[in-house]
Amino acid sequence: MSDIKEVKRLLREIVGATPNLPIPAKVLSVSGDVCTVEVKGGLKLTDVKLKATSNGDTNYVLLTPKVGSNVVMLSHTGKLDNLTIIKVDEFEKIVLVQGALEVEVDSTDSKVGVKNETCSLNEVFQDLATLLKQLKVYTPVGPSGLPLPDTITAIEAFETKFKALLK
User: Fold this and answer.
1) CA distance 143 to 163
2) 144, 136 in Cβ contact below 8 A?
3) Which end of the chain has fewer CB atoms surrounding its CB within 10 Å, N or C?
4) Domains of the chain
């Protein structure tokens, strides 16, 4: 029996595994990439990480839980002062940043944002709507006039829809 315990101990040392169980909690508040949670029994824990590391890295995925939602946490060290959220039932925002690309899904305003250092998807669609409203083509008698009123109405409906979806 002692040989089995010794093998388990050595394996934990080799792979760096510290046995700890997932901890369920309820989100009380969120600030940046950390949150405050309450575990069963009323214990409140602050500075729970929403990312594996809070090191200011410019490439990350940040899943921001909704206040009042349930989450599951794990500790890197097995102690309560080093907890990280690993599962979120409800989110307010998801942000993915890789280099110059940023993708954001925001449930607070029901919009999606996609941008890089040059432009955003919203800007591209706005430019398209502006271009379509001013579109003129060459005809045998010269340049055409602006689009007809029903075409402008359709372009404005398109513009309203993408503004309702995109940041």
Assistant:
1) 31
2) yes
3) N
4) 2-55+66-90 (2.40.50.140), 119-165 (no CATH)
